[in-house]
From TrEMBL:
It comes from Pleionea mediterranea. It comes from the Bacteria. One of its GO terms (molecular function) is phosphorelay sensor kinase activity. GO terms for cellular component: membrane. It holds the Pfam family His_kinase. The chain crosses the membrane at residues 23-42, 48-70, 82-109, 121-142. Residues 157-235 form the Signal transduction histidine kinase internal region domain. InterPro entries: Bact_2-comp_sensor_kinase, Sig_transdc_His_kin_internal. This is Two-component system sensor histidine kinase AlgZ. Keywords: Kinase, Membrane, Transferase, Transmembrane, Transmembrane helix.
Length: 358
């Protein structure tokens, strides 16, 4: 849940001006604004390039100092109300503009600060322009944030809906297994019912955006205990967990549906059954997108493999895989990846998830 709270902070109204791409855009927009000011104030008695140079340096001063202010205060500002953010941001930029204007009078025009009518007009004009531009910018950020909040809310609703889906064939098979065990072994029937109750309770449990890998592995074990009662010796499980399961988090029901697919579309279709292999390891971070190239983090790699029948009479519709891909996309964007492939009559599914450690 700490990561979820951190994500909410990251979604605040003030952008992250500590990132190099945003600093570049800030410089670019400042230059465009300097060109606009040059066009508006240019006359034939002045050098256009000289005027552009003055405006560029002046606007860049204000922009970069303002960007540094937001870089340092962004996390705190994003916890404030929109009114507080607007007032503080406008006041800060107005103060930066006023100080920059005083510095410009001293350096560019080589004049003593006397606060003459001409100097006062210069200060008031620049500060007023900065305030108006800031208010327009804050309005844009507010509207942008409203749109993003709507998209995020819709995405989280989809996430919950996808997470809550339960495969009906598994539920029917489990109930049939319990019914058959009641007469033969009431203890096994009771244990199977407890495993089923745990799975259902976990699938309907609200509020957990992320769970530990250990929790997800426990869900897989509950599911496999149920299927072990149905398939017996046909189902063999091979675990290879090379990470600390408590140290990693992921969306709930990310791994279990893949294990269910391995059993339903693989093991139960084979006369002699087979081995479901479940692996977890940390791999070196690789850039899954251009945005991640500058600070690639270690990735949690999960793998589920199962043997395939020679001919499958009922091919899967890949609903579970599509479900997982959508949830990973909602949670991690392009930073997470699912890879499926065949290798020597085995079907292998790999998940690469940013190594968020709890």
């Amino acid at each position: 849940m700490e990561q979820a709270n951190h994500s909410n902070t990251e979604r605040g109204i003030i952008p992250d001006f500590c990132q190099l791409p945003r600093v570049f855009m800030l410089v670019l927009l400042s230059e465009l604004l300097a060109i606009l000011f040059t066009i508006l104030t240019f006359n034939l008695q002045q050098s256009a390039w000289y005027l552009l140079g003055l405006h560029s340096v002046f606007v860049l001063w204000i922009s970069l100092f303002s960007g540094a202010f937001f870089c340092l205060t962004r996390r705190w500002l994003n916890r404030c109300s929109i009114v507080t953010v607007t007032v503080l941001s406008t006041a800060a930029i107005a103060l930066i503009t006023l100080l920059s204007s005083l510095l410009a009078l001293s350096l560019f025009f080589n004049t003593t600060i006397t606060l003459s009518p001409e100097q006062m007009w210069f200060l008031i004009r620049n500060t007023t322009a900065a305030v108006l531009i800031t208010l327009v910018w804050m309005r844009y950020l507010y509207l942008r944030q409203q749109v993003l909040n709507g998209i995020i809310a819709e995405g989280e609703a989809r996430f919950r809906s996808l997470q809550a889906k339960i495969q009906p064939h598994f539920l029917f098979n489990t109930l049939n297994t319990i019914a058959s065990l009641i007469a033969i072994s009431p203890t096994k029937a009771e244990n199977t019912l407890e495993h089923l109750a745990t799975l259902l309770r976990s699938s309907l449990k609200p509020g957990d955006d992320l769970v530990s890998l250990q929790t997800e592995l426990d869900l897989c074990r509950h599911y496999l205990e149920i299927e072990q009662q149905r398939l017996g010796d046909k189902l063999i499980i091979e675990w290879q967990i090379d990470v600390d399961p408590e140290a990693y988090t992921l969306p709930p029901f990310t791994l279990q549906p893949l294990v269910e697919n391995a059993v339903y579309h693989g093991i139960q279709l084979l006369v002699d059954g087979g081995v479901v292999s479940i692996k977890a390891e940390q791999v070196a971070g690789k850039s899954l997108s251009s945005q991640a190239s500058s600070h690639a983090e270690p990735l949690l790699r999960l793998e589920v493999s199962n043997p395939l029948p020679a001919s499958r009479s009922k091919p899967g519709n890949q609903t579970a895989q599509s479900n997982i891909q959508q949830r990973l996309s909602i949670r991690y964007g392009s930073q997470a990846k699912m890879i499926t492939h065949h290798n020597n009559d085995h079907y292998i599914t790999e998940l690469l998830i940013p190594g968020a450690q709890s």
